[in-house]
Amino acid sequence: MRDDDRDCESRRMRAELHLHFHGCIRPLPLLRHLARSERVLWDWYEREMAVAYGSVPPTRRLVERYRQGDSAAAAEFARLFVFGDEDGGNFGRFQAKANLLWVAANPEDPTRPWAETDAEVARFAAEIRADHRRQRIDYAELRVSAEMVAAAQPPRYAGSAERFAVTLSRSDPWRDWDRVRALALGPRGDTITGIDFCGMEEGHPPKDKAELGAHRLGHAIALGVDPALFGPHTRTETVAERRDQIAYDLRHEPGLRAAGVWVDPSALRAELDRLTASPGTATITIEYEERRLAQLRRRQEYAIQRVHASGAVIEVCPTSNRRIGGIADPAHHPVHRFLSAGLPFVVSSDDPGLFGTTLDAELDWVCTHTGGAELRRHLLETARQARSEVRTGRAGH
Predict the structure, then answer these.
(1) Whole-prediction pTM value?
(2) What average pLDDT does this structure show over 20-26?
(3) DSSP letter string over 73-92?
(4) Radius of gyration of the chain (CA)
């Protein structure tokens, strides 16, 4: 980007809309945290790393070296902690490295990580706030647990705007709902602008949440990756998932047909009758031959139309998509489909501490592989307009 373009950009509000609080923690603050912790669950961390990587890294020794005053350990620690391109395409590896964020135990309550006690949350929040100032980010929305909200909230006049999406468990969201509602209606409720469903996605399909009127959708990779990328192949799914798919096809038959998707209601109802006798956890095998792949692409186009009509904005996190999703080739990234369909999206960094990235780096990647400086300005403006407060009518543009 040219200097005059960066100067113009520096005067714009820079909004980061898809961030996880712990994923924002940079290696050095984490290293300091581990070095001052009284009890670290190294056995757990090393066991998970051995399963994911086949070996145990020298992280424990690096922390001890740093504790003893060896400043050179910091760079080595950062290289071990960051989830890089060489790690990509494997969620188990990502989770194993992320465990380092919770490996220090709370000496007063070993069941609760030290990193989630009020003192540590406040300390990390200050570090994250300083990092945002360095990046010229003056508005950020972070995913946090209900327990962390009070400690993570910025001072009233911190010079930046931080907002929170409080996380709810996918398996039991009602467990914490009363607490979240109390926080939202409390004296600092203005900092809470959304909720986020967290935890393992497998086994918790979005069928009950997909069309509830969300203002923004995280990642939406399945919406934009061309099925041709996978080629003919075989997949398994549960009977419960197949029943859900049949119900979806019957409910959306007119729209799917208009998009060129073949829907046979009689055959689908007959299949549903046959599946009634099978347990939901049983699996079935589906062949994705060329014809089915072409149909799947038309299904994506129909879903894109539905998202577009809803006014929802997609949150694109390029580095996260590449490394966790395994989308190594830039040509295969869903951002190309979003652009060609005119689907509005914003660019964010998801877990910038874990990925060793910044908002600028994410924007640079998208613009390099798609549009250029004009697209960059458009994306910054879209992010400003897509803030939760704006989309819900709680604040002006």
Answers:
(1) 0.91
(2) 96
(3) HHHHHHHHHS--GGG-S-HH
(4) 23
